[in-house]
Amino acid sequence: MHFFNFFVKKHLHLNRIKKKIYIFCSIRKKFYSFTHEEVTRQYIIFLLKKVKNYKNSNIWIEFPLQINKLNKRIDILVLLNEKPHILIECKAPKISITQKVFDQISIYNSVVQAPFLMISNGIKIFIFQVDSYKKKFSFLKKIP
What we know:
Layout: H1 2-11, E1 14-17, E2 20-25, E3 30-33, H2 36-51, E4 59-67, E5 70-80, E6 83-90, H3 99-112, E7 116-120, E8 125-131, E9 136-140
Parallel strand pairs: 6-7
Antiparallel strand pairs: 1-2, 2-3, 4-5, 5-6, 7-8, 8-9
């Protein structure tokens, strides 16, 4: 958690309004309530932009999705050549990444069809490539 404190202080724009803290999202261009999941989301956005050089226009945040007539939201969807490239699920650091989270992103991807999936709670990051023909996942060490 020490790293997160450093990241928040060094790289995020925070604003306090009436005893409540808000965090600025550089993609959506507005402030959102400061939650641990939002910090994870902003950390992943930072990695996508600063480390992998993805453009703001290729990163969609809280993208709406309908599954079995239920309205859901994808935390982050990265596009490449105007097609889904990386589907990302963000969790708060205290949330364990379990089989349930892998199932969740797999269900979302049954609609989105992104070749890469990523799950993070800010402490652990799992990145994998989808092989839809063999119906398997291959874990990767780096963000594509």
